[in-house]
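Take a look at the protein record below and tell me what you see:
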Amino acid sequence: MSTDTSLGTTKNPYPVTLTAGFDGNNQPYFLYFDPQGKPMSSPLVIPAAKPSYDSIRFTQTGDATQLRLWAAVTHTLDNSSPVPQGDNLLLALGGSVAITVNLGTWRGTVLIFVQLDAAGNVVKLVPTPDPTTENDG
């Protein structure tokens, strides 16, 4: 990545960790944390920095035997596809996925988890509520 601040994107990525699991009623839950371990809720705010951050990375933490991060589906202001496909479906590799959030823009993201049975087979897809991301630059 370039470090030329005139381009507006210079620092990658701002990390957010998340846990995923089931509550006592077997309903999925998702918790987000900033790099200092403080809980976050939507919008997930990328703090101002010099040089500014240009993306946010979601990394699953904790037990991934029942819910495993599979992908992020995003919606942008740049006329990306209205359905999940090449420009807005980002596969999570190794339990982590990064999305670009340009300076001063918002981006909605739904994280998709696969639910696994005891044998490790996928039984369904489980989406998160939309954690909107705001880049304060």
Remarks:
- The chain has one domain: 5-135.
- The CA atoms of residues 73 and 126 lie 12 Å apart.
